[in-house]
């Protein structure tokens, strides 16, 4: 066991005043920080495990995790030491008790009470999830309730980062009643596992029991692999159907069907609370607690006076409290795909703290007989009479003081300025402590009242809270990341409460965060008002615009303006769209996509038939082949002045042709229409006829053509000879 004991001072700073609880690997003490003069909880690792790397790493991980997660719903960590003679963790002392102790005192809770407990638990747990951590051991023993009725999450000894929560051994650790199916099956563990455990805890709050049982811990654990968690209303009357649905959603056997994080579980819980119009509730503080018993050890009540004797009291030791009984955190084998009976018993892995048992010690009182008093001497008699008179006076004064004299009446300070109110409380014999609160009726800086209230009688010199108005509250600003838990805490500090409206799209707030609130931040509201938040659904989807028929550059520009980008461009034939025009998009026009998504473009590669009629075969062929067409010719009996002039095509001008079948037939004139050269010089006439592809024969008697044969307009074959007679 741990070598430290009550009364020891650890590292010359932390005095161990009383033991609160002990477990297999460490002991928790109520202590005092001698440097700062405050009460703390000191968790000291047992000396037996100082050289055990696994236990030491778990202890170190708990300290670092708790230090990282600073939040009102998580127990604060003040100090930690993993070197030297002792490994210890110094934490905030919660002078209330555990949720387990509250359940033992009061039994099942009504829905509104269970909601308030879960609200604090899920708020703290959501902070861990936002930091990428998984608690892995959610149970009533790890949920504390402070004296100011705040629910706090503790014991991060089994915490893991989400990225490190894959199965790494053949054993799993946790408390069997609250294990998730994936913990039992040895699968990857994420925030959904904590959601399942929290759902089991909600079931227990509503019914007073956990859903599964078994002859052994392993049999108990296996129940959740094959059975759904029953509806709480099947165990106890009065549970609304919405709570049955909430528990079912949180404890679905498939992690993908649960709330993904505690924040989403909390949002659903708030929706249920709003739908059922559940009243507000202050979580009660358990009374019979280990911390309370440890406090009594530190500050025992004085022994009653014994008349006519001097009490000789031995060192005081309190009677031992009863040993608490609670579910045990254990380690047991990961189940194979087809479970078989385990060959080895379940091995305890994580400690369960139990209050230390001490034998009661009787208080012995020794009496001394008073010496006899003689009244035979007048002087002695007179002296004794004076003593009696003084005693009577002292008793009278003491009676007055312990009766009504030591009490004073709280004065009325409503409406006074702060300084005057403080002075009036001092004048009445009390120690004022100024506290600012929100008020709808009292102006800023004026006294609202006192706590205890005006007219009550309390011991003089006691502290009295002087409540000074801060005026009406304003709606706080929403955190930049939209964190629900942080915003709720800010509201509660201003007496305000949180409700949820319809979810809304947001380009800046991630899914699950607060996108907007009503009234808006900065608006002055009445105390106790409700602020409605809209949870972000992420960026609003954008609609794919219709870019059919647009050229690629124009289509890309239109998509970019809509918040989309082009992933790829493919070509395809379309008889409706010319080359380069968009045929379609994938997804199609009108589809809803997340902003920033990518779209595929399909662009036409069709070939458009040009007008080549009237061109020579050579000119037409050059143009068509340049466009990608394959040219074939067909000769006709038509005659044209230009040899092999195109007189027709197999395709019409403007037709769109598949490039994979781009053949086009040109119809060309097979005859030449002889042009008129009469009256021209022989040289001019010869050149003109040769340009038509004809040969020329000249019978020269002069320089100008008088007769041509065949005559002008005659249809001849290319290469035929035209005879010219010149004079």
From TrEMBL:
EC numbers for this chain: 2.7.11.1
PASTA domain sequence ranges: 404-470, 538-605, 667-727
Residues annotated as domain Protein kinase: 14-281
CDD domains on file: PASTA_pknB (cd06577), STKc_PknB_like (cd14014)
Catalytic activity: L-threonyl-[protein] + ATP = O-phospho-L-threonyl-[protein] + ADP + H(+); L-seryl-[protein] + ATP = O-phospho-L-seryl-[protein] + ADP + H(+)
Protein name: non-specific serine/threonine protein kinase
GO terms for biological process, alphabetical: negative regulation of fatty acid biosynthetic process
Pfam families from the UniProt entry: PASTA (PF03793), Pkinase (PF00069)
TM segment ranges: 381-402
């Amino acid at each position: 066991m741990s070598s430290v004991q009550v009364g020891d001072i650890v590292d010359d700073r932390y005095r161990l005043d009383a033991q609160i609880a002990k477990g297999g690997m460490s002991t928790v003490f109520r202590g005092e920080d001698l440097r700062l003069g405050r009460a703390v909880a000191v968790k000291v690792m047992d000396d037996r495990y100082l050289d055990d790397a696994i236990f030491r790493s778990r202890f170190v991980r708990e300290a670092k995790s708790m230090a990282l997660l600073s939040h009102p719903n998580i127990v604060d960590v003040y100090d930690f030491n993993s070197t030297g003679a002792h490994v210890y963790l110094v934490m905030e002392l919660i002078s209330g008790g555990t949720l387990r102790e509250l359940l033992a005192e009061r039994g099942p809770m009504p829905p509104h009470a269970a909601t308030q407990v879960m609200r604090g638990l899920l708020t703290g747990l959501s902070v861990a999830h936002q930091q990428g951590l998984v608690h892995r051991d959610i149970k009533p023993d790890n949920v504390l309730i402070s004296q100011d009725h705040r629910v706090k999450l503790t014991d991060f000894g089994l915490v893991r980062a989400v990225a490190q929560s894959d199965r790494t051994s053949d054993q799993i650790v946790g408390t069997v009643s609250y294990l998730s199916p994936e913990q039992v099956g040895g699968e990857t563990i994420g925030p959904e596992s904590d959601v399942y455990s929290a759902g089991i805890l909600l079931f227990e709050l509503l019914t007073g029991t956990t859903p599964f049982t078994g002859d052994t811990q392993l049999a108990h654990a296996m129940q959740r692999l094959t059975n759904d968690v029953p509806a709480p209303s099947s165990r106890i009357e009065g549970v609304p159907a919405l709570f049955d649905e909430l528990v079912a959603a949180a404890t679905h056997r498939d992690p993908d069907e649960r709330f993904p994080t505690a924040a989403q579980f909390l949002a659903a819980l708030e929706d249920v609370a709003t739908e059922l119009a559940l009243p507000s509730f202050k979580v009660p503080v358990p009374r019979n607690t280990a911390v309370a018993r440890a406090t009594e050890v530190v500050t025992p009540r004085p022994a009653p006076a014994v008349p006519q004797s001097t009490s000789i009291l031995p060192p005081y030791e309190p009677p031992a409290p009863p040993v608490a009984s609670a579910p045990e955190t254990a380690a047991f084998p990961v189940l194979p795909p087809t479970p078989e009976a385990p060959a080895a018993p379940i091995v305890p892995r994580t400690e369960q703290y139990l209050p230390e048992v001490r034998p009661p010690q009787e208080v012995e009182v020794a009496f001394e007989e008073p010496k006899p008093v003689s009244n035979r001497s007048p002087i002695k008699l007179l002296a004794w009479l004076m003593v009696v008179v003084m005693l009577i006076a002292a008793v009278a004064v003491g009676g007055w003081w312990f009766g009504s004299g030591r009490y004073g009446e709280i004065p009325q300070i409503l409406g006074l300025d702060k300084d005057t109110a403080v002075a009036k409380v001092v004048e009445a014999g009390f120690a004022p402590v100024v506290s600012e609160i929100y008020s709808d009726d009292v102006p800023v800086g004026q006294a609202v009242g006192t706590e205890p209230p005006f007219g009550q009688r309390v011991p003089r010199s006691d502290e009295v809270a002087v409540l000074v108005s801060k005026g009406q509250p304003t709606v706080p600003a929403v955190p930049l990341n939209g964190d629900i838990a942080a915003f709720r805490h800010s509201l509660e500090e201003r007496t305000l409460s949180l409700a949820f409206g319809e979810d809304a799209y947001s380009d800046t707030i991630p899914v699950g965060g607060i996108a907007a609130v009503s009234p808006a931040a900065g608006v002055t509201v009445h105390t106790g008002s409700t602020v409605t938040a809209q949870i972000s659904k992420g960026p609003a989807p954008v609609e794919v615009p219709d870019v059919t028929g647009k050229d690629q550059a124009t289509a890309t520009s239109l998509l970019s303006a809509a918040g989309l980008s082009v992933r790829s461009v493919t070509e395809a034939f379309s008889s409706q769209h010319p080359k380069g025009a968009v045929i379609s998009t994938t997804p199609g026009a009108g589809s809803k996509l997340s902003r920033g998504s990518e779209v595929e473009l399909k662009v036409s590669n069709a070939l458009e038939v040009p007008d080549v009629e009237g061109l020579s075969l050579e000119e037409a062929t050059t143009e068509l082949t340049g466009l990608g067409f394959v040219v074939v010719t067909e000769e006709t009996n038509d005659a044209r002045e230009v040899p092999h002039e195109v007189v027709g095509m197999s395709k019409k001008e403007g037709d769109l042709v598949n490039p994979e079948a781009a053949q086009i037939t040109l119809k060309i004139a097979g005859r030449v229409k002889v042009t008129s050269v009469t009256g021209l010089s022989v040289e001019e006439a010869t050149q003109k006829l040769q340009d038509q592809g004809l040969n020329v024969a000249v019978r020269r008697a002069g320089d100008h053509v008088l007769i041509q044969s065949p005559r002008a307009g005659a249809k001849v074959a290319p290469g035929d000879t035209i005879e010219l007679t010149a004079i």
